[in-house]
Amino acid sequence: xxxxxxxxxxxxxxxxxxxxxxxxxxxxxTDNRVRCLQxxxxxxxxxxxxxxxxxxxxxxxxxxxxxxxHVHWLFELTGRLPLGRVIAKFKRFSPSSVAWQRDFxxxxxxxxxxxxxYGKYIFMNPYRxxxxxxxDVYTGTRFWRQKHYLFLQSLTAPGCPQPQWLAVAGEHPVxxxxxxxxxxxxxx
Length: 188
What we know:
Elements: H1 10-13, E1 23-29, H2 40-55, E2 59-66, E3 70-77, H3 83-92, E4 105-108, H4 115-128, E5 141-143, H5 163-167, H6 173-183
Antiparallel strand pairs: 1-3, 1-4, 2-3, 2-5
């Protein structure tokens, strides 16, 4: 087995804040990227845990996708629990067959960031990873607040992506955001 690079998890904590009402794009990865999330039973259990945490008042779910070795989750923090505790609770109540990496990646969406891009990224993730054919529905994806995502109105029957969406290389919304900030003219 090849050696994995040494993780620098202390960098994940820099700038991490929990802001009530803020939207967070979170990525959780299985330990050593073991592909243990591919069963429909595990996917349903993880999506159900997200719904349970919304019912508990921890957050307001936007959308999520359970991939084979990671989860992308977009939600609004309610303030009942700080971000780290929300994620710890999710991991704690995940199926016992799932071993998570110790930390997680998060990006707090700024007020001017377009939530639609994050939703489309989440939706397209399993198609771009070739986990499902473009003509099939990926069952590990969930949109709770569908009215926020206009692209959902353009899905082909029975809820699959447009063929031209697959032809476009998918950039991560955080990369687009960071590049836009770097390319922006300096404020005077």
